[in-house]
Fold:
Amino acid sequence: MIKYFSENKAFMISGRSYSYCMYVNQSGYLQHLYYGKKIEESDIAFLIKTHGKSLEPCAHDINADMSTDRMPTEIGSFGKGDFHSATVIVRRSEGDAMSAFKYVSHRITEDAIKLNRLPCVRKADETLIITVKDEYSETEIDLRYSILNDSDVLVRNLIVRNNGTTDIDIKKAFSFCMQLPDNNKQYSALRLAGAWANEMNPVVTPLAEGTLRIESTRGYSSHEMNPFMAILQDSCDECSGECYGFNLLYSGNFAITAETHHNKTVRVQGGINDYMFDWHLSVGEEFVTPQSALCYSNAGLGGMSRAYHDFFRECIINPTYVYKSRPILLNNWEATYFDFTDEKLYPIIDEAGKLGMDMFVLDDGWFGKRNNDKSSLGDWYVNDKKLNGGLNSIIARCKKNNLKFGLWFEPEMVSEDSDLYRAHPDWAIAMKSITPSRARNQLILDLSKKEVVEYVFGAISKVLQENEIAYVKWDRNRDMTEFYSNSLLPDRQGEFAHRYVLGFYDLAQRLTTAFPKVLFEGCSGGGGRFDGGALYYFPQIWTSDNTDGLERAKIQWGASICYPLSAMSCHVSVCPNHQTQRTVPLETRGAIASLGILGYELDIAKLTEEEKDKIKEQISRYKQINNMILQGDLYRLSDPFISDYFCVLCVSHDKTKAYIVGERFHSSVSIQNPILKLVGLDENTNYRIEELDIIASGKALMNVGVPYPWLHECESWIWHVYEYTAKWRN
Ligand code: DGJ
Structure:
């Protein structure tokens, strides 16, 4: 619900359990008032009187301009006494950039507002649009707030408009600005940091005076830093306390900053990274920033995660797929790498069929003359030296085994040794005068060019039209280094990074629209582009190249802080693991992979009969709990980063059944009989835990708990919990 109080020029946005309040102060600025647990509409006057007025700038005192520095604002201006970093910086033709963004008008619309060329929420109950104008120029900005009444996520972005008579340059245009005004609180910041094969480590550090900035400058959201930050109040833990999430629905260079002022207030802002960013805005044009998803929780980090999971499932992920069972697939990458022929693939396909899988996916190496990673990216036609019968014979073999067929592409890349590069060397990102940086022997296609997007769309469409393909794995295996397009004027190169992302979104939009029956899985050498923007096109994303049963549990734990289990593609691979050399029991690898979209990635034809039986069993059990993975509520019970165990619980909405997976991380004898208290069940329901053959009330399971199973390191357990009186149903 969005409410405007005309007598106070104030706004109150209310979601499921939060209120977000702001008002137009006596100087005309949009001043932030409150963001936190839900309060009453009638409280707005109290808020202004007690929390607003004292922080207002001294409007009638010409010697008091600097007082804007302490004003909590919804959009930071530049150069007039507010010494925080600004939210939007616009340089005008005379070279000046001072600004004072003041309220002009507002309107409230029903529903969400579609963004042209950017991913955006698919639905909203209401959207508030507040227009502010720069006091010193004709630059206007719309601040947008979209809500769902039954959600704790608030979606924000802004739009910069040049209403003047001369062109302007946008030096910075973040998507949101928000100030946590309570200077009695000690805040900490959580981010999901990592590296290739080690994504999404939750790192928490206290905030202190100065700026904490997380960012990507790699052209993509990156393995190293997810476009997400949470600010936690001192008492916040997994199950209780207050926290705020800030998630950017964007897949390119981003920045989120938390600026602790000398008076201890914290201004949080984020959006497209302003580093080397520069956007020329001609007279009459507008610039649309990506959306950001803010979340308030008073039920700890777990509450925030569940709110984000609901949000991504309800508002971002393609509704055709979001709650639909996804195929359990066999991917040949770690089974064969580049070394395959159709003859070599047949036994793997046959075995996948026998074990009850749904799909076979042919990964990298099927096209051009690609036998290693040195050639052929861009040549999206079959390597018939490897696949004698083309894709047809592989697809026929799949059909014979009742399997669907999926195919790997890396649409954004080109090898210098490729027909595509030989025909269009100028389509690769490179400056004539500077040798381009190579990574994995490849260059990046310049997707800021329409003709390049058109070509890639055509080439991939042809393969999808000519073959029965039910799934595409869309990979991306290098970071961007040269931020340059030979189609942009010298003074427009600062636009390149964002224009590339717009090209990527255009291509993804066109392909997913043209082939609505094809499930597109995102991938970026694992989780290098695991973000809310990519999730709009890809209902599932390959979470990491690290499939080690121990490390992978940590990666999925981190990813679950923001993203739903149904977004995580998770495979069982061979041991010793190819990334870590560790050997982890097949049961554990299966248990961890079942906490997402299950798949397999090993030469199953080489497994023993006993191992095959175990996989068969994993698949049939997974099919029983699949709905909980797609729709359930996640509770993280034991943190593998700080304890001896990993354990999570996924419960159905009606709380009649739950799925628990745990793993022993460290063997330590210091704690005897540690107890695991379950969370998220119904206190007044009796449950049976199938594997333990125990029956207990929700009250007992949550307050008394259950002893952890006695296990060796890397061993795991699965408990199926269900309402005692009800039959197990999916
Ligand atoms: C990186 C991906 O993450 C892998 O799963 C695999 O598809 C390779 N690329 C293929 O080159």
In short: The first strand starts at residue 2 and ends at 5.
